[in-house]
Amino acid sequence: MTGNHWMRLSTALGFVAALGCAKGEQASQSADSTARNLTLAPTESTAAMKDVPAQPPAEPVKKKPPAPTSYTLRAGTGMSLNADDSISTRHAHVGDPFTATVSENVRDGSGHIVIPAGSAVSGTIVHADPAPNPRATGQLDLAVSSVTIRGRAYTIEGTVDSKDSVMQGRGVTKADAAKVGGGAAIGAVAGRLLGGNKKGTIIGGVAGAAAGAGAASRSRDVDVVLPKGAAMHVRLASALTVSAR
Predict the structure, then answer these.
(1) Which has the higher per-residue pLDDT, 172 or 152?
(2) How far apart, in whole angstroms, are the C-alpha atoms of residue 133 and residue 173?
(3) 137-148 confidence digits (pLDDT tens)
(4) The Cα angle at residue 145 between residues 144 and 148, in degrees rounded to 5
(5) Residue 174 pLDDT greater than 50, yes or no
(6) Distance (Å) of CA 218 to CA 22, 42, 206, 224
(7) What is d(CA 184, CA 35) in angstroms, rounded to the nearest whole number?
(8) 15 phi, psi to nearest 5 deg
(9) Nearest residue to 168 (alpha-carbon basis) of 235, 57, 88
(10) H or E stretch covering 97
(11) Model pTM?
């Protein structure tokens, strides 16, 4: 072979060797890249996911209505009382004061206690007339004027429309005897006219006295008495507003 031929052959072999090296490096780089990609690929997760339910929207906070500052009893509201002391037409006079105690809680239309049991009530005597005889009826009328609640006095208007009063006779008095017009003297005169002597006068006087006493007993005064602790019922004539505190 000539020198030129060897040179060409040597060049061709060098080119082939270089090409083979280049392909080998490319194959090696490709393999490394594939390995890196396989290493970095995310692994498939098999853990079960826990679903958390969504929280419902919070309900708006409801504001409580403000507490009332006062309560009102309507006109016509009833109130039960007990008399603090005995009241009698024998001693009582129009305008005299009296006191009583509330025996039951008094509530408004919504059920709130407006006047607690134990509250003090003041009033006056409107009429105080004894019965003129056992067959008649006397009159004892009362009206309330104030009530004290938690230490505070309130003006009220109301009348006692019922009460546990009793009738109590006084017995025969000089005033009762005077009502019959002197029965003993009349008897004495009648005895003198009938008997014509002192003995007849005495007998007539005794008979007249007995007749006068009988007439007086039938005409004696009978008092209306409201005993201590007796029940009364009051009806308000006008509305009453009471502080809640």
Answers:
(1) 152
(2) 12
(3) 899 999 999 999
(4) 100
(5) yes
(6) 157, 125, 19, 17
(7) 153
(8) -65, -40
(9) 88
(10) strand 97-102
(11) 0.57
Q: How many Å separate Cα 141 from the centre of its chain?
A: 29
CB 229 within 8 A of CB 166: no
How big is the chain, counted in residues? 245
**3-state class of 182 per DSSP?**
coil
Of the candidates 87, 113, 84, the one whose C-alpha atom is nearest the C-alpha of residue 101 is 84
- Three-state DSSP at 237 gives coil
> Of 161, 95, 84, which is closest to residue 125 (Cα–Cα)?
95
pLDDT in tens, 191-244: 444 445 555 444 444 444 444 444 444 557 899 999 999 999 999 999 999 998
The residues facing 121 across adjacent strands are 100, 147
AA identity, residue 146? S
The answer to whether 202 and 209 are in contact (CB under 8 A) is no
Phi, psi of 233 (to 5 degrees): -130, 130
Residue 199 corresponds to which tokens in the numbers above?
């003995």
